[in-house]
Amino acid sequence: MNDAERREIAGIIDHTLLKPEATRDDVEALVREAVELATYSVCVSPSMLPLSAPAAGLKVAAVCGFPSGKHTSAIKAAEARESVERGADEIDMVIDVGAAREKRFADVEADIRAVREAVPSPTVLKVIIESAVLDDDEIVAVCRAAVAAGADFVKTSTGFHPAGGATEHAVRLMRETVGDALGVKASGGVRTLDDARRMIAAGASRLGVSGSRALLADTTPAGAASSSY
Length: 229
Prior knowledge:
- The protein has helices at residues 3-10, 24-37, 73-85, 97-101, 105-118, 136-149, 168-178, 193-202, 212-217; strands spanning 13-16, 41-44, 59-64, 90-94, 124-128, 153-155, 183-187, 206-209.
- The protein is an alpha/beta fold and 229 residues long.
- The chain has a single domain (3-217), classed as Alpha-Beta Barrel (TIM Barrel).
- It has an 8-stranded parallel beta barrel, surrounded by 6 helices.
């Protein structure tokens, strides 16, 4: 990997720490590493906000309704609003995946819209659809709901579901559905440089990565377990 490619990939990484056992010291280390690696952002749990020393130019993302998506829309909206008040630039919300599986796409759209109204632009809203749990028709319908509700990104996965994380097929289908209207974030299992290249080629414009240093150094063995996200 040449320096230009490394900078390009680093520049679309949300450097992520969502482990339940994460401490404030861990998050401070995450921020320092993000600055060193020149990633686009850090992505953390809402309870970790505000960051004690956010770096100039480094975006801050927080998750919402994470990881189950089974919170009510009112709770998700309140959580998102509080996170923005505490310094988040971006919100990664989880849909009610069960509603999508039941084909209640109007309810999915309403859920997304509630969060969008709570955190209007310029806050960036990413919608986690847990693509490994959905069939293709459901992925398409949920992506259309995200577009209609005013989201900025659709995102493959929490990285915490046993069904798995991002796949090239899901990313490609999501990109085909949203076109240029929304970004597509691949997360969950993006561990190696080859993973990153494949997701970008499939249409990803953002990557959720916990092991960013190893990925950018191209030192992570294929098949290595990811510690989170």
